[in-house]
Please model this.
Amino acid sequence: MQKLKVLVLGSGGQLGKELKYNLTKNVSTIFFDKEKLDITNYDLLKNKINNFDPSIIINAAAFTNVNKAEENKKEAFSVNSDAVGFLSNLIAKKDIWLIHFSTDYVFDGEQNLKYKESDVTKPLNVYGMSKLSGEKKIIESCCKYIIFRTSWVYGEYGNNFIKKIVDIAKTQKKISVVSDQKGVPTSTYLICRIINKLIQDISMDNFWTPGIYHLVPNGRTTWFEMAQEVARIASDESVKYNFKNLIIEPISNNRRSNEVKRPRNSLLCNKKLQIKLNFTLPNWNEDFLPFVIKYIRNN
Ligand SMILES: NC(=O)c1ccc[n+]([C@@H]2O[C@H](COP(=O)([O-])OP(=O)(O)OC[C@H]3O[C@@H](n4cnc5c(N)ncnc54)[C@H](OP(=O)(O)O)[C@@H]3O)[C@@H](O)[C@H]2O)c1
Model:
């Protein structure tokens, strides 16, 4: 049987690299980082898709710097919305599945419950607005799409909060961490596992209803609690850095100078995805613990 062909965009990023190394080997793949294929270059994008003729496109390319998006609105929208719109219109005519990623930042975080896929969106910042606009363009195109909204992504490849905390703790005795934003960290490892399952289902004609799915593990935490957990794991794991005496001070996001508005509740309800998968997603600390241990040991 001929293998399914999967084309991955944005393969130089945190998630893109995870996919590059851990995507199922049961498919033929082609990976493009920004250097090889800028998704705002429509002619090249069209050309690469026509040449490879994939059954699935995974779009891990995005303008993800929340602070920079405020001053670079045009660029953020160009990558997160316009190019996504072009891509989805192009593939709608070709019967190709699009697997795309969006964010908890499409919500304003003012509700107390976890956000469901059907809850009202109301982004607080340019990044969130550009990602929401991308979602809408995909839906309007009527292509076959799965949008995974995820939150607080971390992984082996790329910069993330956990790495920052460990690195700061090497040189500082006290750090301040935001304690009034709740959410859940999602590992690129988990995202890749779910994508592999989706690809397997597509290859076996096991139908997924096109739509938005919240892809996050179970549980909840705050940045402050996560920093405490990093310090706890690190002090058990290594005497090299003085994690035991590290003072972690809780602060409000409002106290951080020049901060872009972020939702205070980033919790996404993952029930729809769990029902589709027919298994319970792990608790966030199941992937978190081995990740932190590995990072501490290697650094
Ligand atoms: N990181 C998070 O906490 C988080 C949370 C929720 C949702 N998400 C979503 O998850 C997805 C993956 O995020 P990530 O953490 O892997 O982000 P990332 O590490 O910033 O990766 C995004 C990649 O896209 C590339 N890119 C930017 N503009 C491009 C363009 N015009 N053409 C092609 N590639 C381009 C970036 O290259 P350069 O770096 O060279 O610009 C980068 O390699 C994104 O859709 C993001 O919105 C992320």
The chain is about 40% helix and 15% strand. The mean pLDDT is 93. The two ends are 44 Å apart (CA to CA).
